[in-house]
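S.,

As promised, the iron/sulfur cluster run. Input:
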Amino acid sequence: MKKGVAKRTPTIWKARQFCLSCGKCCQNTEMILLSSDISKLRRLGFRFADFAVFDGRYYRLKNVDGRCFFYDSENGKCRIYDFRPLGCSMYPIVYDVSLRRLVVDDECPLAGETLKEELIRARKYLKIILNELRIR
Ligand code: SF4
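Predicted complex:
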């Protein structure tokens, strides 16, 4: 794929309109970056050292002043929404590396309203995540 051209992140939530745009999920993010997320963001021209941090096992989104590097605090929005990491698109469903399964993050004010079909839809992406994180 040509430099500067990137594939949009798939939309996981089709069941209902869910987000309050409160930005909580972008505060002190611990979002794991897949290699496909990283190559996409680099293809868009972002410097790896600016947006990623290594935790000794995984690369994660970097926080700046307590918020994700890509968070625009002026308008409270994600600067790369259409190309955000897959994990961000699945939120508040997240892959818990210690439990080795999908969980719903109760940091999200609407976590309790997560629907069964959304969990089923998210499971479709679990294989991609496990493959890319080389988790067997
Ligand atoms: S990439 Fe976008 S949606 Fe994901 S944590 Fe950062 S600002 Fe939020």
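Residues 34 and 129 are 7 Å apart (CA to CA). The longest strand covers residues 93-96.

- D.
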